[in-house]
Amino acid sequence: MSLSQHFTLAELTRTRTGLPNNPSAVQVENLTALCVELLEPLRAALGQPVRILSGYRSKAVNGAVRGSPTSAHTLGLAADLKSIAGDAEHILRVLHGLDLPELDQAIGYDATRGGHVHVGLARPGMMPRRQYLWAPEEGGYRSWRP
pLDDT below 50 — which residues of the chain? Predict the structure, then answer.
């Protein structure tokens, strides 16, 4: 099932845990919004495909991968990604330049912590925080600006 021009439900729900990972209709709607509002504009700006490492996570999958209990992934509102277009810092710079109004959070991870980028939409009824963070090698998170 296509969620947008370049993203499918299968790639946004893929897991290596072997656990069931089936989103509800509401979570599929959230995943569709994530693709349309964030992932498609990012892909277009990068000029290269975006590889989804983790999208929707059932509570069981989220626990198995030691995700935060309040993770937006469990609502279908977040994805972790990489692209051959550049490293995590490059992707953050591109996202920042796009100034996407629906972006709630973008977190770039140092290469020692996976080298990926987490992007997310705000929970329904909440204003997007437009927050950019960096996850450095030594742990934790800090504010990020280009």
Answer: none
